[in-house]
Amino acid sequence: MTSSSLLLLLILIAAISYFFGRKRSEVVAQSVGGVRYLHSLPNYYGLMAAVWAGIPGFVVLSLWVMFESTVIQGIVASSFPDSLKALSESQTNLLWSEINNLRSGVITNASDPALLTAAEQLTALEDRSSILKTILTLGLAGLTGAIGWKLIRPAQKARNQFEAFFRILLMLSSLIAIFTTVGIVFSVLFESVRFFREVPFFDFIFGTKWSPQIAVTADVPGSSGAFGAVPLFVGTLLIAFIALLIAVPIGLMSAVYLVEYASSKVRNVVKPLLEVLAGIPTVVYGFFAALTMAPQLKNFFEGIGVNGVSSESALAAGLVMGIMIIPFVSSLADDVISAVPNSLRDGSYGLGATRSETIKQVVFPAALPGIVGGILLAASRAIGETMIVVMAAGLAANLTANPLEAVTTVTVQIATLLVGDQEFDSAKTLSAFALGLMLFFTTLMLNVVALAVVKRFREQYD
Amino acid sequence: MTDQNMNAIERLATVKEERMKAKLGKRYAKEKRFRAYGVASIVIGLCFLAMLLGTIFTAGWSTFYATEIRLTVTYDADAIGVSDLNDESQLMFADWGALVKNAMKERFPYVSGRSDRRAMYSLVSSVAEYDLKDRLEANPELLGTTEEVWLMADDEIDALMKGQVDMSVPENERRISDLQNSLVESLIESGELKKSFNTTFFTNGDSREPEQAGIRGAMLGSFFTLLVTLALSFPIGVAAAIYLEEFAPKNRLTEIIEVNINNLAAVPSIVFGLLGLAVFINVFHLPRSAPVVGGLVLTLMTLPTIIISSRSAIKAVPPSIREAALGLGASKVQMVMHHVLPLAMPGMLTGTIIGMAQALGETAPLLMIGMVAFIADIPSGPLDSATVLPVQIFLWSDLPERAFVAKTSGAIMVLLGFLAAMNLLAVYLRKKFETRW
């Protein structure tokens, strides 16, 4: 039976158990003088019966589905002849795809007779696994369902038991956030460690040449690949800097105007309109940057006599990214500026200051920590942004600070290295995970600092 | 002496006043300038928005119309080389293109010569013959008869009809020859060329031929991906929010969870793609390019958004309601499930819809898990290979054919339409069910 039909069956079993558990509680209640002498409402007896019948089977089924293919592959691989076991990882992957093709009938002639037996073994094991899975899941559901059925009696604290179960469920849900973080850290860390075994850490951090292509034959120049990430870091920072140069003044000034000057009518119209900018998918910005902004910038600069402007210039990507994070800066600045208490403003007006003087000399200094925090968050956004740079920035790793030249960024490299088929034993693929590790920790640091700064600012006026 | 003193004081006062006035003028000018900066930055921001939407709408509008050519097609068995439509072996070698070619030859008998003929054939889309094939296979009784059909025009002709081709440049520098132009003109005169609503765009999957490429596959892929995301992230997000707001003890673990959720909300989306690739595909061997994996990755990505907004919705429920429920003898779980949750539900739904809108527009993590493959088939379930709308946009934006620029913009318009609808729904829900306590 397939896993999805088993799941449906389990749900059905749980629903039936609920119904009969409820009925049974009403029946057993007769012996003690009616439903009102039960410990809990009949509903809870039914729910507990459903939990007993459904949950153990569900846990076993999901564990089985998660590890089924890995275990079966392991068993088949252990019975490979020694000649096949000695192969490298990428060759083993090829073997597996050949085995799968043999099984689906795409090819009929195996390059090695051992593969045919492996394919047969795999099919046999999968059949057996499927039968075993069905028996185990349904058997367990029946067994625990019977236990749940047996447990129903007037003194069973069904409500308390169900609520305890429910709380555990809630807690597990909230733990997923931790599992996600742990998953991210381990997945990038694990592959990065493999990468740093091949490429020394300091070569990666301080190297100035990036060309991850590894030639097939050893005599081609640059065959070993160069993994110096400095050009990527510089490119990322250059684009992020341009973006902030656009977004910070515009975002900040719009926030100031909306909070301090605009009537509530204007504010109600303009604020949502600006926030539309934040809701537009990044791929749309990328398209705009690549097809409209970049050619126009090139034309403009060539019109004023600047030659050699790249059509994938950092300026185009940075400019469009800046547009994207305007609403981000403005809504964060809006929050912190509104949080500055009015008594400060009134005091300033009372001393004869104009509005702009009040804003510049009283409101800004008071809101500064919050604004800095907001800018840091915007910077982390800009560094981690992918689609705009994938579509509008270049692929070649130039170490330059000239915004009119093409640069590449960390996210572009991760995306291009990992799109398409990869083999997981080459430094080229693994380098993407090392870059991911760098990216994750940089943005994490920026966020932690920014959130701490904003939090302290909030506490100051709460 | 006193007189002079008075004069000096008076003079000093006037000087001061003048200075003050001058300074005041400067201060007011500064004030005006500052205000103008504010207005200017808002105007710049809105201009960017208008420019962005303007370019995309002007470029994408034409996608929704397609050019079709009317041809009188004779379903000649000899020309196709098929005598029995149920015979698979014959169908494999059938020459469907001959139908279109014969019809074209009949329409323009005066075109002769190999290259001219070829130019003539290329007026009709190169995949139009398969439309005829499908039509014939569905209605076998048509074999041997003649009928008029509207066939899709080639993308270059489509561009010509939409005024995107500059006919003033020398003939060898444009994609449409003078002969083709004259043929098109004669078709227009006789009413055998029309612009119609482009249904192909909404009913076809991806294709390398721009006139045949559609977004149905991508739309369904997005739908299945969002379905998985919604089915997982809504219950988990709400449960986590309830736990953190109502049940969690104030200890280290809870604090770690809270910090974690806030940080996850700001992790770059591409990192989630790395997680999906390393865990779901390399460890659990889930199928590549499948909406299930996309849904799982997007679930992890949208969870923080949903948890944060659900928590604020729960926080907004006044404690008096909780106390009343507890006072009447409800257990804590009953209080939450029967009273707090229903009251907080509109806020939670709003947050979820906004999270879903984010997930719908997300591209980068899906590139990592292989949803970028060229997939012409339309997915029929969350386990089939599929791509999603934003990734389709990304794929099309890379293609060199001019017609794909319009296609890309058209797909963007559809995507923005969905996003706008979702966000408006969220705003409507918030307005309708918002309760002030």
From TrEMBL, chain A:
It comes from Reinekea blandensis MED297. GO terms for biological process: phosphate ion transport. One of its GO terms (molecular function) is phosphate transmembrane transporter activity. It is a multi-pass membrane protein. The keyword Cell inner membrane applies. Pfam families: BPD_transp_1, DUF3708. PROSITE patterns: ABC_TM1 (PS50928). InterPro entries: MetI-like (IPR000515), MetI-like_sf (IPR035906), Phosphate_PstC (IPR011864), PstC_N (IPR022182). Keywords: Cell inner membrane, Cell membrane, Membrane, Phosphate transport, Transmembrane, Transmembrane helix, Transport. PANTHER family: PHOSPHATE TRANSPORT SYSTEM PERMEASE (PTHR42727:SF1), PHOSPHATE TRANSPORT SYSTEM PERMEASE PROTEIN (PTHR42727). Belongs to the binding-protein-dependent transport system permease family. CysTW subfamily. Residues 233-450 form the ABC transmembrane type-1 domain. This is Phosphate transport system permease protein. The lineage of its organism: Bacteria, Pseudomonadati, Pseudomonadota, Gammaproteobacteria, Oceanospirillales. GO terms for cellular component: plasma membrane. Its main location: membrane. It is found in: Cell inner membrane; Cell membrane. The keyword Transmembrane helix applies.
Automatic annotation (TrEMBL), chain B:
Residues 219-426 form the ABC transmembrane type-1 domain. This is Phosphate transport system permease protein PstA. It is a multi-pass membrane protein. One of its GO terms (biological process) is phosphate ion transmembrane transport. Belongs to the binding-protein-dependent transport system permease family. CysTW subfamily. Gene3D superfamilies: MetI-like. It holds the Pfam family DUF3333. The chain crosses the membrane at residues 36-61, 218-244, 264-284, 290-308, 340-361, 404-429. Keywords: Cell membrane, Membrane, Transmembrane, Transmembrane helix, Transport. InterPro entries: DUF3333, MetI-like, MetI-like_sf, Phosphate_PstA. It is found in: Cell inner membrane; Cell membrane. The keyword Cell membrane applies. PANTHER family: PHOSPHATE TRANSPORT SYSTEM PERMEASE PROTEIN PSTA, PHOSPHATE TRANSPORT SYSTEM PERMEASE PROTEIN PSTA-RELATED. It comes from Reinekea blandensis MED297. GO terms for molecular function: phosphate transmembrane transporter activity. SUPFAM superfamilies: MetI-like (SSF161098). The keyword Membrane applies. One of its GO terms (cellular component) is plasma membrane. CDD domains: TM_PBP2.
